[in-house]
Amino acid sequence: MDFMNLLKSIEALLYELVSWLVFYPLTLWRCIREPLRMMAYARSELADLPDEQFIDALSPPIFLFLTIVIAHLLDLGFGASHVAAGGVFADTRNLLMFRAVAFSLLPLLLAVQAVRQQGLVLNRATLRPAFYSHCFIAAPFVLAIDLAMTVGIRDGTTARMLGASIFLAGLAWYLAALTQWFVVYRGTSRHRAFARALLFVLLGAVALMAALILAALSIMVSDGRGLQ
To answer: Which residues of 140-177 are buried (b: 16+ CB within 10 A; e: fewer)?
Structure first.
């Protein structure tokens, strides 16, 4: 009986993993093409039964995490990660978890702001819909950032210009999506919506830099202990 349960678990896991090959690109395309509709979709799906949620797309946190994994594999494939991280980040699993948490700070900041602006009590139940919504549109931006860095660090002016172009395109798309979200769902003017979108992107950049500084300090401390 235990063996049959194991087989069923493996069957379910294998199907889930293989289905990502289909639903990841579909979800990415839908997020790029219709970001606001996907944000609304995330909220509506959470109202369904757990087994019926996100049956035609990836769950937003999984979608964001897979994007980070793909970006990491692209880094390795193009030789962008030739400098090995030290300390706890020498383990690829720890590095991936750090990147997942770091890149989740921006949707988290926006989700907290959305809950506060709606006048709701901040808890797990009220934070989840907003966080899931912003994970959908954060993923393409994260992918653009990583692609820009991977291409931009290569030798040559063309590579740097291409990297800068990818970053600016991703940033423009993300700012446009956030601006439209503030206009539609917060009722602000387009100029104020753009200013707020830009402010939150800057806050996210500051939070990411703080996380990177803490990570660098952790590596320095770990390396220092190793030399003793």
So the answer is: bbbbbbbbbbbbbeeeeeeeeebbeebbeebbebbbeb
